[in-house]
């Protein structure tokens, strides 16, 4: 890697994944830059969530390596997997809070399950994360009493509880209106700046998500077709990237001449 590029927190090398007869990932190569935000985009059903599941060690590939902090997750044993997962936080679209637990207990869960910290320290840490998420007076509420946006904020507080090195977001704003989505993005931005974690985001929220991305990766035809800055992505000549940009954002013209030609031919 060149001097200008940050080191990779995660590297997928030659990943092939099949479910039965369906080959979802053919040859996925992707390097996730440490401390940066990598957004994975692509049409529905291409396998973006399957990529995240490989990074989390939830599924194993037929072929290839998943390198995380120097370990190959694709071959890791349970103990090593658990050690690596301590460094991960996840916020998935359905959040998956425990309905029978209060907000406070949901957020405290990772610390209670995975550390030996005293209850006093746990309470202080949970308080700090809930404040960071602007969640005041919500401690004793149960998930059923929360709005969609609040649930996501509780989920984000829980995802950050173990001060993870990498946080995975799989369509984190699904089901939220524009202002609640913006709130989640604002909290993501704030916490990433404060805590410095590496972020991997799967999202259909194009072009908004480009504002948060350092790198955008397109998954199509079972491969990552390119990883680049959002600006380069929107102006790329790569046929599949260009098609994706046009389908999601409308045509983008790299030059005034190109745009003028469109009106002339109309
Ligand atoms: N455990 C599984 N067993 C069988 N097939 C699976 C499994 N997990 C995923 N798939 C299949 O893999 C393909 C990719 O799924 P995935 O959820 O990763 O797509 P995606 O790109 O995240 O889509 P979307 O944007 O709609 O969420 C789909 O055809 C899905 O049915």
UniProtKB/TrEMBL annotation:
Domain ABC transporter: 10-246
Signal peptide limits: none
SMART domains in the cross-refs: AAA (SM00382)
Annotated Pfam families: ABC_tran (PF00005)
GO function terms (MF aspect): ATP binding; ATP hydrolysis activity
SUPFAM superfamilies on file: P-loop containing nucleoside triphosphate hydrolases
Cross-referenced InterPro entries: AAA+_ATPase (IPR003593), ABC_transporter-like_ATP-bd (IPR003439), ABC_transporter-like_CS (IPR017871), P-loop_NTPase (IPR027417)
Keyword annotations of the record: ATP-binding, Nucleotide-binding, Transport
Superkingdom of origin organism: Bacteria
PANTHER family membership: INTERMEMBRANE PHOSPHOLIPID TRANSPORT SYSTEM ATP-BINDING PROTEIN MLAF, PROTEIN TRIGALACTOSYLDIACYLGLYCEROL 3, CHLOROPLASTIC
Name of the protein: ATP-binding cassette domain-containing protein
Organism expressing this protein natively: Trichloromonas acetexigens
Lineage: Bacteria, Pseudomonadati, Thermodesulfobacteriota, Desulfuromonadia, Desulfuromonadales
């Amino acid at each position: 890697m060149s001097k200008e590029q940050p080191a990779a927190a995660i590297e997928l090398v030659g990943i092939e994944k099949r479910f039965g007869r369906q080959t979802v990932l053919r040859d996925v190569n992707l390097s996730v830059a440490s401390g940066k935000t990598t957004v994975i985009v692509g049409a529905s059903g291409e396998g973006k969530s399957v990529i995240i599941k490989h990074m989390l060690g939830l599924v194993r590939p037929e072929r290839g390596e998943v390198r995380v902090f120097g370990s190959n997750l694709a071959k890791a044993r349970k103990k090593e997997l658990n050690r690596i997962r301590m460094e991960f936080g996840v916020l998935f679209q359905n959040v998956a809070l425990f309905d029978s637990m209060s907000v406070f207990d949901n957020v405290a869960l990772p610390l209670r399950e995975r550390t030996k910290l005293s209850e006093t320290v746990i309470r202080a840490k949970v308080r700090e994360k809930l404040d960071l998420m602007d969640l005041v007076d919500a401690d004793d509420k149960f998930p059923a009493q929360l709005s969609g946006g609040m649930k996501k904020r509780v989920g984000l507080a829980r995802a950050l509880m173990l001060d993870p090195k990498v946080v995975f977001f799989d369509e984190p704003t699904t089901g939220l209106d524009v202002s609640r989505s913006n709130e989640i993005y604002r909290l993501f931005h704030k916490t990433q700046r404060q805590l410095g974690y590496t972020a991997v985001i799967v999202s259909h929220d194009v072009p908004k998500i480009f504002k948060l991305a350092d790198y955008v990766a397109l998954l199509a035809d079972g491969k990552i077709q390119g990883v680049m800055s959002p600006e380069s992505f929107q102006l790329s000549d790569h046929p599949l990237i260009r098609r994706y940009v046009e389908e999601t954002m409308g045509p983008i013209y790299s030059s005034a001449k190109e745009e003028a030609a469109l009106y002339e031919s109309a």
